[in-house]
């Protein structure tokens, strides 16, 4: 299915898909199933690199709880049509048809029992079954449009002509995996607006005093509820030697903007005031740091009491002082200095402005026959399989229309 360069080759197909990732392969499968002659091009040496590395090598391939509310974008309604027409159940049916064992880890997140290689193999087998070709090591040097629904691509494999061109090149995240801004360049070339891009689902960095206070706690993890700009997530927070990570932090990073502070509930699911009052009644002689160490990692409780909370025996706190302690525990302030950037970001926020695309077909409103799908579009999901589901859904929408 993959091909080697043939520099003198000139050929024509119905559909060229740029990018052999999740969205591109799904588009090829859907288009091929309709009898379209499809060629998928990728500049990398193998297909589905982000699929292979995702989920710790087991690929969190969808989320059973997917709804449009799990996505960010300038137009929150844009993703609704594609998501409604290709659901997690549809993708799960394909996975089961190929005999791939999977499990739910948490919060609707589905992972392969064995390896993410099974998802890539399944997609390639599905593409092969409908006659879609996949060509790696292929660099696109230029794209021209000689006429309506007529595209000419000059590539390292020669010249290609097609009636439909699908851009599934992904975002800027993890450049070491081959990410580039090529899809955004094409969008600009054909008159599309772009929403500002930035790293999403990414660890946050601290600096100065903020970092000094927690840096030596690197590796420590605790469950929190973390809030910023109206969004809130409850999950694990991990202290790193550069700042904060873990699922809760990755989730909130997509909502955080430079200059924003975060509010962290260190006792999620509890009313901190009621809990402290009960501890005062039951553990009157115990020090605060000891009491906190029973529900938080001990070293973290110690640091809280060194920097933020004066520790003394519980019986010595007045009701007003207990309220102050409760406020800090329920709303621990964190001021990130930045993010770790695209190097470690799982997704790219922003991208091709959805105002220029059909939400039903993903086709350009400006250039008939030109489509944008997956991460290159200004639709970004939460952590937990949602971005793969957008890839499957948007790819299927375009593949059903090209």
Automatic annotation (TrEMBL):
EC number(s) from the headed UniProt entry: 1.14.13.-
All residue ranges annotated as the RsdA/BaiN/AoA(So)-like Rossmann fold-like domain in the record: 14-400
Coiled-coil segments on the chain, per record: none
Alphabetically ordered keywords of this record: FAD, Flavoprotein, Membrane, Oxidoreductase, Transmembrane, Transmembrane helix
Transmembrane as UniProt keyword: yes
Pfam families, sorted: HI0933_like, HI0933_like_1st
GO molecular function list: oxidoreductase activity
Cofactor(s) needed by this chain: FAD
Annotated transmembrane regions: 12-33
Domain RsdA/BaiN/AoA(So)-like insert, chain residue ranges per copy: 198-347
Name recorded for this polypeptide: NAD(P)/FAD-dependent oxidoreductase
Protein's organism: Luteimonas kalidii
Source organism phylogeny: Bacteria, Pseudomonadati, Pseudomonadota, Gammaproteobacteria, Lysobacterales
């Amino acid at each position: 299915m993959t091909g080697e360069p043939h520099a003198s080759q000139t050929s024509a197909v119905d559909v060229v898909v740029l990018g052999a990732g999740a969205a591109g392969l799904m588009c090829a499968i859907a288009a091929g199933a309709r009898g379209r002659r499809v060629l998928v091009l990728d500049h990398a040496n193998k297909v589905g690199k982000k699929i292979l590395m995702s989920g710790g090598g087991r690929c969190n391939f969808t989320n059973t709880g997917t709804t449009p509310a799990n996505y960010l974008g300038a137009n929150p309604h844009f993703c609704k049509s594609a998501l409604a027409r290709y659901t997690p159940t549809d993708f799960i049916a394909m996975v089961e048809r190929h005999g791939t064992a999977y499990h739910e880890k948490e919060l609707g997140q589905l992972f392969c029992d064995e390896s993410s290689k099974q998802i890539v193999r399944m997609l390639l087998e599905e593409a092969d079954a409908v006659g879609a070709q996949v060509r790696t090591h292929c660099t696109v040097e230029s794209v021209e449009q000689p006429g309506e629904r007529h595209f000419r691509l000059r590539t390292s494999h020669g010249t290609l002509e097609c009636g439909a061109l699908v851009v599934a090149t992904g975002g800027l995240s993890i450049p070491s995996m081959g990410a580039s801004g090529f899809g955004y360049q094409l969008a600009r070339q054909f008159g599309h607006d772009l929403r500002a891009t930035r790293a999403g689902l990414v660890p946050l960095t601290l600096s100065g005093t903020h970092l000094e206070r927690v840096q030596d706690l690197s590796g420590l993890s605790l469950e929190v509820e973390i809030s910023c700009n109206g969004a809130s997530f409850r999950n694990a927070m991990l202290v790193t030697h550069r700042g904060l990570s873990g699922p809760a932090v990755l989730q909130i990073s997509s909502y955080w903007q430079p200059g924003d502070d975060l509010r962290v509930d260190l006792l999620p699911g509890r009313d901190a005031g009621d809990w402290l009052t009960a501890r005062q009644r039951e553990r009157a002689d115990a020090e605060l740091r000891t009491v906190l160490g029973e529900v938080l990692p001990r070293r973290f409780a110690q640091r809280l009491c060194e920097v933020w909370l004066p520790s003394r025996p519980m019986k010595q706190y007045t009701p007003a002082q207990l309220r102050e302690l409760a406020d800090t525990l329920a709303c621990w302030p964190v001021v990130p200095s930045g993010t770790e950037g695209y190097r470690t970001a799982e997704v790219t926020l922003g991208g091709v402005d959805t105002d220029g695309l059909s939400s039903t077909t993903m086709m350009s409103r400006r250039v008939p026959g030109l489509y944008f799908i997956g991460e290159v579009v200004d639709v970004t999901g939460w952590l937990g399989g949602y971005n793969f589901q957008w890839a499957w859904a948007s790819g299927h929408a375009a593949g059903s229309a090209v």
